[in-house]
């Protein structure tokens, strides 16, 4: 598995790939619904297939760094994809983990989870505290952990830990570190202290979402965990490591209507940050990048020092198996895939554990939209 193949950037800087994991959530079937079974099927730990809407006798096969099937637990996602990058934060390196995918596919479940099934965020924060605790005093460093929590909505940067929130500027210092002057940064000394700040701020965001027309599906929620370590002895060297944990806006194309498909690229109405993120990940992973367009949106500008470059980055693409997600799944996979292959055989339909009527091969045209091609 090519984990972090380095590719040459425009200059002599090394940029690292973004590791891509895909997670399929379980099928949600209603008792009284005619079930068609899932339209996606996992093949093994790195490959999955989906029916080809252009030609139902064909299947499209995709390859990823990791494929997590619908039975994968929160613990397994954390252990295999997230835990290994956390030690780097303690030695002054940056990292980012973000959940991508259409609304309803499991981004928040993956990142936040529930009290019964905690997701990446609570597990990662606990682990950072554990790693710091396990550090040998004799190494001579003192550690301090802090957090910020913000949201990017309509290209505005909003502080979720402060009530008087207004659009905050993103700056870069002389050492190319990205910072947000005015953003609340709170020192935390335990997981429960983290929870005390994080939970109310998350709730604020959820409440606002119902009022503000599904805001949560169109904004990016960004948690920053910062670990600063300081050498006890002279010259008191200091290193800062940043970990961004991001629940991205829904990747669905809200403008798709009837039979008139609109491509992602055609209008300015799309979520600029999400669109730019796809270009940034594309240029980091293609290996031929002349310029990585970090500056084209707030999200990518903010993540610039923690995505690509010397940072450790992971994108978890969440997908849903039901047919109504088909086109969003298709475009999410096209964005995320390392490679894809069209196989000349019909997609094997499987029934699911809900009452199913005899299956007919449904004609899936006319097509509402052309998925984004790359
Ligand atoms: P998103 O944040 O992408 O809009 P959610 O995380 O809210 O999606 O998931 C939609 C629904 O599916 C929620 O009820 C969530 O609990 C459930 N869900 C998502 N992923 C899983 C999973 N892997 N296992 C069980 N339930 C899941
Ligand atoms: Mg969500």
Descriptive overview:
The longest helix has 21 residues. With 374 residues, the chain is of the alpha+beta class. It starts with 5 loop residues before the first strand and ends in a 31-residue tail after the last strand. Helix content is 23%, strand content 25%. The strands form four sheets. Strands 3, 7, 8, 9, 10, 13, 14, 15 and 16 form a nine-stranded mixed sheet that branches. The structure holds adenosine-5'-diphosphate and magnesium ion (MG). Magnesium ion binds next to α2.
SSE series: EEEEEEEHEHHEEEEEHHEEHHEHE
Q: What separation lies between the terminal Cα atoms?
A: 23 Å
Low-confidence stretches: 1-12, 256-269, 353-374
Instruction: Tally the beta strands.
Output: 17
Query: What count of helical segments does DSSP give?
Result: 8
Summarize the amount of helix as a percent range.
Answer: 10-25%
What is the general shape? globular
Strand content: 25-35%
Bound ligands, each once: adenosine-5'-diphosphate, magnesium ion
Helix vs. strand class: alpha+beta
Radius of gyration: 21 Å
Specify the biggest β-sheet. 9 strands, mixed
Q: Averaging pLDDT over every residue, what do you get? A: 82
């Amino acid at each position: 598995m090519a984990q972090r193949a380095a590719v040459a950037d425009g200059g002599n800087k090394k940029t690292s790939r973004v590791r891509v994991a895909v997670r399929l959530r379980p099928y949600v079937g209603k008792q009284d619904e005619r079930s068609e079974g899932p339209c996606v099927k996992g093949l093994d730990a790195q490959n999955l297939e989906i029916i080809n809407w252009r030609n139902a006798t064909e299947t499209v096969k995709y390859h990823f760094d990791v494929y997590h099937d619908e039975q994968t637990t929160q613990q397994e996602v954390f252990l295999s994809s997230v835990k290994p990058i956390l030690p780097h934060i303690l030695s002054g390196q940056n990292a980012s983990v973000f959940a991508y995918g259409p609304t309803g596919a499991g981004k928040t479940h993956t990142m936040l989870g529930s009290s019964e099934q905690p997701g990446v965020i609570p597990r990662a924060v606990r682990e950072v505290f554990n790693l710091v605790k396990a550090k040998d005093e004799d190494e001579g460093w003192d550690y301090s952990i802090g957090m910020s929590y913000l949201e990017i909505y309509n290209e505005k940067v909003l502080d979720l830990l402060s009530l008087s929130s207004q659009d905050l500027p993103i700056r870069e210092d002389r050492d190319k570190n990205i910072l947000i002057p005015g953003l609340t940064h709170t020192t935390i000394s335990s997981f429960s202290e983290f929870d005390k700040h994080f939970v109310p701020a998350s709730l604020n965001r959820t409440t606002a979402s119902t009022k503000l027309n599904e805001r949560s599906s169109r904004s990016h929620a960004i948690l920053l965990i910062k670990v600063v370590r300081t050498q006890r002895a002279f010259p008191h060297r200091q290193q800062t490591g940043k970990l961004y944990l991001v629940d991205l806006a829904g990747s669905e194309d809200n403008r798709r209507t009837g039979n008139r498909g609109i491509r992602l690229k055609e209008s300015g109405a799309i979520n600029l940050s999400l669109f730019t993120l796809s270009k940034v990940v594309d240029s980091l992973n293609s290996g031929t990048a002349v310029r990585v367009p970090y500056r084209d949106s707030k999200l990518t500008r903010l993540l610039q020092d923690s995505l690509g470059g010397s940072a450790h980055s992971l994108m978890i693409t969440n997908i849903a198996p039901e047919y109504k997600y088909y086109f969003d799944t298709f475009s999410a996979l096209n964005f995320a895939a390392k490679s894809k292959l069209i196989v000349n055989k019909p997609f094997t339909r499987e029934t699911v554990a809900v009452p199913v009527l005899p299956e007919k091969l449904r004609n899936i045209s006319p097509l509402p939209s052309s998925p984004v091609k790359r």
